[in-house]
Design brief:
This protein is α/β, with parallel strands linked by helices. The protein is 43% helix and 11% strand. A seven-stranded mixed sheet has the order 3-2-1-4-9-6-10. It has a three-stranded antiparallel sheet with strand order 5-11-12. Strands 7-8 form a two-stranded antiparallel sheet.
């Protein structure tokens, strides 16, 4: 064998041994480099997603996405951020809660919810009312969780109890029938007292005399998103007198003669009806969309009303002569006790008749829950940036339910969308 042949075999053998020795190391380094490459890929992807999220957040805070026309987000200057919170002008307003002493747990949760979502920055007052004196436990616990001043009022008996002119025999007979029909609160006198009080007396309480605006917050209300603005400021700056979040159909069997009574009032006081009213919202008989949002009717009234367990209003509207005349006319009919008229249709019909429809605002950006229904804002950017905790596709999100009257309100108050009408 020649020497050069021996050298070649030696080189091959040495190379083979070297490869065998270092191959595991190469594999390890290859895996390390591959993993680093994958890690970098995921890091880059994560950074991109985060960048998009932050951009959505900035867009929502500084230049809010428009859900549609005629929403509170029309006025971009009123979107409050942590940078300008110290420069806001506090409005002459208070939260109003009607509660019993036994409601203290729910009341505390409702207060904590609104404080964490909004009022910890603004410190608006809380005003509580009860038909009996509040006990020390209720006062202590609600005061502890409220950031603003708290005050507690006792409702006068003539603002709460059954009026002397109500025929109690007729009332009791009717309530027995309602009870047999399994009507919700069909035999409850306290519920009727509450509805009458909220319809015609809450705004007359002395503790509210110094305020111009209120937000009603019921004890079992829970807020689902951070509020992007001060609703009271929205009312003042945009010259609004009534604001709502949810609108739905009333239970027709609770108000069988209400609309007839309203029509009698209109015929006798036509001069009080606003020429640019929202009456069409209450009387529109047309179905909207495909097999959804169908009109429910009782005579000419489609039963639509604003849900009043969360509402924002101008107290001076309710103090006005036209509203007082309207309430007194309805009250004389006795429907709060002979039937089961609620304050929600009363407020809604009054706002639709007496206000310019441009004085009514839908607070689409306020997410809240009151058993069993809730409103969850729909746009992704808003839902993310305002820390919403609700299911947009849920059955009890009112916007997905056929009891929803919002499309009808949109139709009659000039709200427009990218899609054509009928594609709700």
């Amino acid at each position: 064998m020649h020497a050069h042949q021996v050298n070649i075999k030696a080189v091959i053998l040495l190379t083979t041994l070297t490869v065998l020795v270092w191959l595991p190391s190469f594999r390890v380094w290859y895996r390390i480099l591959s993993l680093r490459s994958k890690d970098q890929h995921y890091l880059d992807k994560s950074a991109l997603i985060r960048s998009k999220y932050l951009q959505k957040t900035r867009d929502t805070i500084y230049k809010p996405l428009k859900m549609s026309s005629h929403t509170a987000a029309d006025n971009n200057n009123l979107i409050t951020t942590s940078m300008d919170i110290n420069n806001f002008e506090k409005q002459n307003a208070t939260f109003v809660m009607l509660a019993r002493n036994s409601d203290v747990n729910d009341a505390v949760e409702a207060i904590k919810s609104l404080e964490s979502r909004f009022n910890h920055k603004y410190h608006y007052d809380w005003t509580f009312f009860n038909d009996v004196p509040f006990d020390e436990d209720f006062i202590r616990r609600t005061t502890e969780v409220a950031s603003g001043k708290t005050q507690y009022g006792l409702i006068p008996k003539d603002n709460w109890d059954i009026p002397s002119w109500i025929n109690k025999t007729t009332m009791n007979n009717n309530m027995n029938i309602f009870n047999e029909e399994n009507m919700l609160y069909g035999s409850s006198i306290s519920y009727r007292n509450m509805c009458r009080y909220n319809s015609g007396f809450f705004f007359r309480q002395k503790l509210l005399d110094g305020y111009d605006y209120y937000m009603r917050v019921d004890p079992d209300v829970h807020f689902l998103c951070d509020l992007p603005y001060d609703p009271f400021e929205m009312m003042v700056v945009n010259h609004k007198k009534y604001g709502f979040v949810i609108t739905m159909h009333e239970i027709g069997s609770t108000i069988p003669t209400l609309w007839d009574t309203v029509k009698k009032f209109i015929s006798q006081h036509s001069d009080l009806i606003n020429k640019n009213n929202l009456l069409g919202f209450l009387t529109d008989k047309n179905d909207l969309g495909k097999n959804k949002f169908k009109a429910h009717f009782q005579d000419d009234y489609n039963l639509c009303h604003f849900w009043t367990n969360l509402e924002v209003g101008d107290l001076n509207f309710f103090r006005s002569d036209k509203y007082l005349k309207f309430f007194d006319f309805l009250d004389a009919n006795g429907g709060f006790y002979y039937e089961r008229w609620g304050d929600a249709p009363i407020h809604s019909i009054a706002a639709a008749l007496f206000l310019d429809k441009d004085e009514i605002i839908h607070f689409e950006e306020i997410g809240y829950h009151h058993m069993p229904y809730y409103h969850c804002p729909m746009p992704n950017a808003f839902w993310d940036s305002h820390k919403c905790a609700c299911s947009r596709s849920g059955q009890f999100n009112v916007i997905n339910n056929e009891i929803n009257c919002l499309p009808r309100y949109w139709k009659h108050n000039g709200k427009t969308f990218v899609k054509e009408p009928g594609h709700f």
